[in-house]
Every structure is written in C-alpha cells, then in structure tokens.
Design brief:
- With 352 residues, the protein is α/β, with parallel strands linked by helices.
- It has two domains: 128 residues, Aspartate Aminotransferase, domain 1; 209 residues, Aspartate Aminotransferase, domain 2 (3-Layer(aba) Sandwich).
- The protein contains eleven helices and twelve strands.
- Helix 6 links the parallel strand 5 and strand 6.
- The longest helix has 24 residues.
- The chain is globular and about 55 Å long.
- The structure holds pyridoxal-5'-phosphate.
- The site of pyridoxal-5'-phosphate has 13 residues, from helix 4.
C-alpha cells in the first residue's frame, strides 16, 4: 500500500547485506565475520546478565562500556560514543556531522552503505575514484567538501592507507570532519585513534563485530573530540535512548577487557590470511594487499561470477559484486579458520 508511504520512502535504495544462508555446514566466507568464537569471558558475562534485572531498562548512557573503551584507548569517556553496531553509529555520524552545503566526499569503491545513508538523510555527496591500483589517493580529496569519510582499510578492497596519509588528510582539511571507518583496523592496519587528542576534526569509528567476534551482539563505537561526540549524543537521544541493551553492554565490556584473547585470535586470522594469499597467487589469482580480515582477488582467466557460483555448489560462499564494472571479476573472501582456508584452496584447485 505504497500510497501510505512518506515521500522519501519512494526514493530509498536500501543497503543489501551479504547473504545469511539458512543451510547448515556451509563454509561462510561472505560477510567478514570472525571464524573464532567470542572470548569465553564474554559468554560468562552474557550468562550472568540473563537475570531478573532484565525487567529494568539498561543504562541509556552506557557509562560502564564507555569507560571500558576509554580506558582501552587512554581517552576520556566524553570522547567515546557507543551504538548498536557501527552501522548505527555511521547513520548518526552522517546525520549529525556530514550534512552541509558542500558535498560529502568518499571513494567510488567503498562500503556501499555510505550512499544509502546519503539517500536517507538527503546529503549531497561526490565520489572520488580510486587510482589504477585501487588505492585511495588523498591528494584527490583536497577539494571543497562538507566532510570526508573513508574506511581504513578500505572495503571491499582491503587495502590499508598508512597513518601518515590519513594524518595529512585531516590536517589539510581543517574546515570539515574526516571520518575514518576502522571496522577492520585490528587485522594489521594502523589506527588513527592516537591522533584524536590533537585533532578536533577527526572521528574514528570501530566495531566489535569483526576483531572481537561479536557481529551478533551489535556493538560499535566512535572516538573523537567531545564536541563531535556531543553531536552524536544529541541525534541518538532524539532517536533511541537505549541502543545498547543489557547483554550488549556486559558482553562488550568483557570483550574489551580480554586483551590476550583478542590479540591471539587477530594474529591467527592474519597468519591464515598470509598463507591464503600465497596459495591463491600460486593458483593464478591477483590479490590486492590486505590489512583486513578478508582479501579481494581476481583470477587471471576465470570469471568472478563463474568462480563464485562454482564455489557455492561446493558449499563455499564468497561475495562477488555486480557493480561497479571495475570490480566485477573480483571475489571478496573472508578469512576463515585454517581448515576452511584449506577447503577453499582445494575447491579452487579443482575448479581452475
Ligand atoms: C567498512 C564497514 N564499516 C562498518 C561496518 C558495519 O559493521 P557493524 O554494523 O557490524 O559494526 C561494516 C560491516 O561489514 C563495514 O564493512
């Protein structure tokens, strides 16, 4: 009954997340989840939270979680904003900080949710083409803008940008906010968090979905100058007072505090990635340099859509994008366990 829709709803083109198949026993390498379970301490914290207190609302300000994140990074709690996954954080960032008279800039090949938020909040934007090597060239962003957002490492390419470049970007753009979406930063990319203290126009977003194995809990955070955080709080408190439920807060605190488990699982993912890259290159794939928990790879002969369909027949799902044309031949492959990685290589060896 679309006659009842508000006008804007007719104009929306919603984001389409990677498939969450109902079939069991698939090797699921399509949505960049962590192949390892969350820390056992997270599971203990969640069990403890399944209690009579669920009848009460959670803390609307998530103060304990903010303190845990602030302690982890050596920041103050008023430099931290938390939300229901970094997607929700990003939505608030777009609305609170990136809607201005001049266009928002982001790469032409990047996280495909960005243009969706622009549609929802009616933000004008301009995409900036990646260079021939699929890299972000920061010189291309030195043009009039109402804000800049980019993931580091970029998605779906996985290519990391050195911190010195990111620093130049926000230093040379003092009149607008530069948002660095660090969803995948813990897998070998340099974080910009330590530059927050001196730079009031830098906002960093991160998530517990990837490096802390908590995609199902939905917790993300933003770090930046208290004035930027204040804008996000205003939007959040005009939208949903309780984005972090009691389970999410307890589990996220436990995850932030289990440093040893976090480091160990991240190192495992990185080690598997490095082996997978070598094996894929030996099979004739060009693999872009990755600082993430996924790789972006193209076979020199076999078409991307054919390979992805054939892998699926063998119970292995990877992600392949139909557009833009430049990336059609690429497969985005999440790093799984060592055993999953070997199964992938055996399947590819047969197919090629
Ligand atoms: C670049 C990037 N940013 C943010 C997100 C959102 O993650 P979440 O909402 O799970 O925190 C994703 C998810 O895949 C992503 O790829």
């Amino acid at each position: 009954m679309s006659k009842f829709w508000s006008d804007i709803v007719h104009t929306l083109t919603p984001y389409v997340p990677g498939e969450q198949p109902k079939l069991k026993n698939l090797i699921k390498l399509n949505t960049n989840e962590n192949p390892y379970p969350p820390s056992p301490k997270v599971l203990e914290a969640l069990k403890a939270e399944a209690a009579e207190t669920l009848r009460l609302y959670p803390d609307p300000n998530s103060d304990k979680l903010k303190s845990a994140i602030a302690n982890y990074y050596g920041l103050q709690a008023n430099q931290v904003f938390v939300g229901n996954g970094s997607d929700e954080i990003l939505a608030h960032v777009f609305q609170a900080l990136l809607k201005h008279d001049k266009p928002l800039l982001f790469p032409d090949i990047t996280y495909s949710f960005y243009p969706v938020y622009c549609g929802l909040y009616q933000i004008q934007y301009k995409t900036v083409a990646l260079n021939q090597q699929f890299e972000i060239d920061i010189e291309d962003y030195l043009q009039p803008n109402g804000g800049i957002i980019l993931p580091n490492p970029n998605a779906p390419t996985g290519i990391p940008l050195p911190l010195a470049k990111i620093e130049q970007l926000f230093k040379r753009n003092p009149e607008s906010v530069v948002v660095v979406d660090e969803a995948y930063v813990d897998f070998g990319t340099e974080s910009a968090v330590r530059l927050i203290q001196q730079n009031p126009n830098l906002l960093v977003t991160q998530t517990l979905s990837k490096s802390r194995s908590l995609a199902g809990l939905r917790v993300g955070f933003a770090l930046g100058h208290p004035d930027l955080i204040e804008a996000l709080i205003r939007v959040k408190d005009s939208f949903n007072s309780y984005p972090i439920d009691r389970f999410a807060e307890a589990g996220a605190i436990a995850a932030m505090q289990d440093q040893a488990y976090f480091e160990h699982t991240c190192q495992q993912v990185v080690a598997t990635r490095e082996r997978l890259v070598k094996d894929m290159q030996a099979l004739g794939f060009d693999v872009l340099p990755s600082g993430a928990n996924f790789i972006f790879a193209k076979h020199r002969v076999k078409a991307g859509c054919e390979l992805s369909a054939q892998l699926r027949e063998q119970g292995i799902i990877v992600r392949q994008f139909q557009s833009p044309a430049r990336i059609k031949e690429y497969l985005r492959i999440t790093i799984g366990t060592e055993a999953q990685s070997q199964a992938l290589i055996s399947a590819l060896t047969q197919l090629i």
